[in-house]
Batch of 2 targets.
Target 1
Amino acid sequence: MLVGLSSKEKNNLGGKYNVCGFVEPGVNIATQISSMTADTSLLTKNDLIVFCCGVCDMNKNNSKEGVKHIVNLVQSNNKTNIFLMCVPPPA
């Protein structure tokens, strides 16, 4: 479902932005963010990060820790557009 989302968003934005997406199923938010940090260091307001956190963090008792990592991501990329999503837990 999430694979290809950044490409779809790039099409929706009409080529106005460079779009990159990171999809790493089964990893927690801290691991996901640390693996993409070097890739985001040169992004500008003409770029868009599509970031999706999932049930590995938000469906457990460590959601507070996950939110802390998301806040750090936003603060460290304050010159970049960020699209945050969260996968809902299974019913």
Target 2
Amino acid sequence: MTLEMLVLDTDHLVELDRGSDSGAVLQRKLEEANDEIATTIISAEEQFRGWLNQSTRHWDTDISTEARITAFSRSASVRI
């Protein structure tokens, strides 16, 4: 049996994070696969930049501390 490596790009990671229908299908396929799963440093950078943009946007606006914590917690929980 030959193992393969599945490389996920940023779009895959976003769909998984959002829990979309496409993400759910991908999640099932990944769980059924007996392959290694990886992503690229480019996807990691794009995720990190998105997290920074989101946290900065929430920090610069006049929103409650609770809303800031919620936005930060959601962004920080993204697994790469």
